[in-house]
Write a structure and sequence with these properties.
The chain is an alpha+beta fold and 235 residues long. Helix content is 41%, strand content 27%. The chain has helices at 26-35, 90-95, 116-125, 128-153, 156-171, 187-193, 198-210, 226-233, and strands at 3-4, 37-41, 46-48, 56-70, 76-82, 87-88, 102-115, 172-175, 178-181, 214-217, 220-223. Strands 1, 2, 3, 4, 5, 6 and 7 form a 7-stranded antiparallel sheet that branches. The protein has a 4-stranded antiparallel sheet with strand order 8-9-11-10. A hairpin with a 2-residue loop joins strand 8 and strand 9.
Length: 235
């Protein structure tokens, strides 16, 4: 079970500027504070499961959450990794359809939940909020289209290079030798994201290390030659 967490005011929330609520006035933020539920989830806990009905939406305060689907063969395909400021469950909520994917915590996360009633009230009083949500949906749709093209037109080495660049953009932090990917993904999870068998992904990591494109620090990968990786990814 998730652990109930002391509410953190939206006005002072570190992830506010990256969330859909960034332009709301203080009055609306106070309303959110009064009606939201904030919980802490440990690694491996689920926020929601594919096929279940949505009752609201989730806003990630901290941590990392994988959004994924499971095929008939039981194989997991990761759609994206959500982190601070991101929204979850909004597509299903506004289409009034069951979740078409599952969300599971991969690094301990603090997440706020807002009911459908609260969200609808906020949108009625703050029409600009609907534009923020549409923008998020559009960005995610664009990313999904790009991923589909990548899976169908790029080889495995190119797809791995592209994944490294995407993780650099979303989770990269400065490091003395380059850019550290501040996210711990298993080899199985990374392989899932590029449509590869795990053994092939491991081989690619070894090759990239040998070519001095990346290095490893504990469980974290470090990009040491972004320019060359961009060439390989053709971006």
């Amino acid at each position: 079970m998730s652990k109930k967490t002391m509410r953190k005011e939206c006005i002072t929330c570190d992830s506010r500027e990256k969330s859909i609520f960034c332009h709301l006035e203080n009055e609306a933020l106070v309303q959110i504070d009064q009606q939201k539920n904030t919980n802490t989830y440990k690694k491996g806990q689920d926020l929601f499961l594919e096929g279940n009905p949505p009752f609201g939406l989730y806003c990630v305060n901290s941590g990392k959450i994988k959004i994924y689907k499971v095929g008939e063969d039981g194989k997991e395909t990761i759609i994206r990794i959500a982190s601070s400021g991101e929204l979850l469950g909004h597509r299903s909520l506004f289409t009034n359809k069951p979740y078409n994917a599952s969300a599971t915590v991969i690094e301990e996360a603090q997440v706020c939940f807002l009911s459908k009633t609260t969200i609808n009230e906020l949108i009625q009083k703050n029409p600009s909020l609907s534009f923020e949500i549409i923008n998020r949906l559009s960005v995610q749709m664009g990313a999904a289209e790009n991923r589909l093209v990548s899976l169908s037109q790029k080889n495995l080495r190119e797809r791995f290079a592209e994944l490294l660049l995407l993780l650099k953009e979303s989770h990269g932090i400065p490091h003395p030798t380059g850019t550290k990917l501040d996210i711990r993904l298993t080899r199985e999870e990374m392989a899932s994201m590029i449509g590869s068998a795990t053994e092939n992904l491991i081989r690619l990591i070894t090759e990239f290390k040998k070519d001095s494109l990346i290095e490893q620090e504990g469980k974290y990968l470090i990009i040491t030659n972004s320019d060359k990786i961009e060439e390989i990814a053709h971006v």
